[in-house]
Amino acid sequence: MTFTRDIGAARITQLTELARWPFPVGGLFPSAAEGAERTATTLPSRFVDPATGELILAIHMYVIEIGDTTIVVDTGNGNHKQRPNLLPHHMFDTDWESRFAATGVSPADVDLVVSTHLHPDHCGWNTRLVDGEWVPTFGRATYLFGADELAALRSLVSSPSDDPVASDLVRMYHDSVRPVLDHATWSSVEDGHLLAGSGTTSVVLRSARGHTAGHQIVEVRTPDGGAILSGDVIHHPLQFCCTHLIQGGDADPLEARRTRDALLERCAREGLLLMPAHFPVDEPVIVTVDDAGRAQAPTLFDRT
Length: 304
Ligand SMILES: [Zn+2]
Prior knowledge:
Blueprint: E1 4-7, E2 10-23, H1 25-28, H2 34-40, E3 55-66, E4 69-73, H3 96-102, E5 112-114, H4 120-123, E6 127-130, E7 133-136, E8 142-146, H5 147-158, H6 164-183, E9 185-189, E10 194-198, E11 201-207, E12 216-222, E13 225-229, H7 238-241, H8 253-270, E14 272-275, E15 288-289, E16 295-296, H9 298-301
Parallel strand pairs: 4-5, 5-8, 8-9, 13-14
Antiparallel strand pairs: 1-2, 2-3, 3-4, 6-7, 10-11, 11-12, 12-13, 15-16
């Protein structure tokens, strides 16, 4: 499952770490009413397992090549990461490294690594296990962390808690973030940071808070459109049908919804392709709005 799309001077390649990542509706959206579960059963089978009713997600990352610069946006879950409380993230063992090589880009070619946010499935391949040590996967790259996101994670790490999810986030810090801070080139960045540009095409980080305190998206802009690599602003196509759904990991559900609504509206108005982290699709998502102003994704739902 992968695609390559040229957006102005930028070439964007989707790289899938995991093509099928199932969750019960109530596991992904704990506040889901029965109505949402019923709606889920009407979705195409590539989005919901008809036998179990589980929602199907995927884990994608994106490689952007523009001018002389190669950027990786999100680094997936990574292999061999101990997540005893966040079991969907626990101890992956995939052939991601050989599939990454098949994109034609070597980890050593990567200039910049960006995580939309610091959850286990977005910064895992920041590091890989070598002789029992976690070492940066992209040895020559500069890793860019959202300043607020990194500060929130460091604060969590420095305030001991019995919360099981927090303890796995601390594990994530020690195996996927701290080795980068200690052994790689890194920088913390703010809203509006220009990652790269070539001609009239630019690649810019934008703040998109709600799912986490410092969530950011990557905007690839050309004069007549572009694409948004949207991380976890939206998790699953079901959220086009039930826009109120709160994902279990949303730190601030109201802000997450405002951010999601605004982003989808902007994609429709400005003709921006949506490239989410978890939709089980191998094409960019085209967003429109209906007469009532509700976001729609017609191309998602016309295949089974
Ligand atoms: Zn995620």
